[in-house]
Predict the 3D structure of the following.
Amino acid sequence: MAETALLKVRKLAKYFDVSKPWLARVLENQPAQILKAVDDVSFEINKGETFSLVGESGCGKSTVAKLVVGLHEPSGGEILFDGTNLVEAINRKDSNLVRRRWQMIFQDPFASLNPRWRVRDIVSEPIRVFKLARSSAEIRERVGELLTQVGLSPVDGDKFPHEFSGGQRQRISIARALSSEPEFLVCDEPTSALDVSVQAQILNLMKDLQRRLGLTYMFISHNLAVVYHVSDKIGVMYLGRLCEIATANQLFKAPKHPYTRLLINTIPDMDMTRVERAPIQGEVPNPIDPPSGCTFHPRCSLANERCRREMPLLRNDGSSLIACHAVEEGRHT
Amino acid sequence: MSLLEVKNLRVEFPNRRGTLLAIDDVSFSIEPGEVLGVVGESGAGKSLTGASIIGLLEPPGRVAAGAIFLEGERIDDLPYEKMRRIRGKKIGAIFQDPLTSLNPLYTVSKQLTETILVHENISQEHARARAVALLEEVGIPAAERRIDSYPHEFSGGMRQRVVIALAICANPKLIVADEPTTALDVSIQAQIILLLKRLCKDHNTAVMLITHDMGVIAETADRVAVMYAGRIVEIGAVRDVIKNARHPYTKGLMGCIPIVGHDVEVLQQIDGVMPRLNEIPKGCAFNPRCPDAMDRCFRDRPDLMATGSPSTAACWRYDTVTANG
């Protein structure tokens, strides 16, 4: 492929220390507890494409998003943004030069906008921080353009966030994210808090902006239908690890990893075929104390001795990447 | 006779500036053992309809007109104590967040046996045995041991199972389930849906399933009522409504849901948002967003009418009696 990777993530890890306070730990003679929120995660995102991470709550997808924009410092591994190491770049003095190249859109448009700021100030904050305009007149003009671009009107800049509905607020978040003219947007569940008819408006807007501005998206969601609609490539996460990476078409037409199959099996059947489906077993285990070997083995019908013992690594299986012993050994069909 | 009959229900919220009409002339019925889905966007009035049925409308909200009948008996005007007897015994309730519907200070055992003892005249030991059996029925492993745990010791999915056990413990005829799977992960959601379906079949319990998720409706319901701005705009068998929507709002709603396997570059879009209760336009409430609005839609409010398909819709386009204006 001629496409070039804009973001490369290699063996990314983020551990959180969730131990009790030191004294309590010493008195009760307990070891430190480490939560491996993200472990050994590697993927690439090409310019202009949409890469999605899916998984259930607690699988680490939002942590990856925060790592990728530099809101968390990784415990291991590296993130290369357009060839430069992201962590080093952020810690340099001239970090503003790279920081403006990515932005983030958050889930809850009620919590992510400062209620005491006018929309104009919210949207122009990145412009002011990165000094992208010379005069206040220029800022004002740019904010008007941005608001128009996301389907609002320039006069909305004088209003406060509470004067808008959820969908409109999410448009304001998008306008703010676009104001530093980024190439890369990380969207963490951007439509989960919205009603379906508003979700469609936002998804259409995001796709339209991507086409016009050549944006690259990293999209985080638990809604598989939304992910199917927006993505080029999808990574499925389970307990902090990637278990399958494939193109959207391939993942949904021929899912290979047993967990991917389970997830796809849960999609409500809108075509009303009423086919009886296999019941889904078990729940996501506690990430502080994950199962041995492949963390999915207690819920997996294909698990054998090796799966209980040995952690599978992502390996190339034709056109997709899969971390599963059963797939590797051809036991999965 | 229908199990539940809601006739011309009207719910109002009086406030300083006047009265907000939250539910306007809603009528429907639920047959024994039937699952009726109620779907709509936030603010459409679906949860309020459920709350009116179980008699838990929060003041200042009040049933201003209309009537609700359960097994032929009027229940909307019962005094609080009498309604309390019916709630739990004849109508069970399941809410969205399983953590807030359980008391964190009592063990699951205490909460279940207490509920059983309120409705049935049996000994403490029998009640406990019933409780264990119920937990087993809703799929909680090692129920005998887990029953003495507190709600926080259960995961979200398991908690919702406990809530379901509480709802069915007096064998109610009807369960009002308000967004029972919204707070859960997709794989847990699928489990809970399956459980609800199985329980209804086993006990012949009817369910009023309130949700914003068309997918859950497609999986679970027999019939579906689509609500918009406090009114039912379309009601019919699930298959008819999903495959052959009649009301422009339902059509738009179906078009804007991304579906796996359906490749569309741009999702169909309903512009605008649902009007606030104090800004509901004259005529059909959907008229500002409707692609097919006619003069008449801005003048008169349509009631549910035959559409030439098995479902009925509140849309003037299907009006054949009077001439189009």
Observations:
- Chain B touches chain A through 43 residues (CB under 8 Å).
- Residues 3 and 71 of chain B are 5 Å apart (CA to CA).
- Residues 245-325 of chain B form one domain.
- The mean pLDDT of chain B is 90.
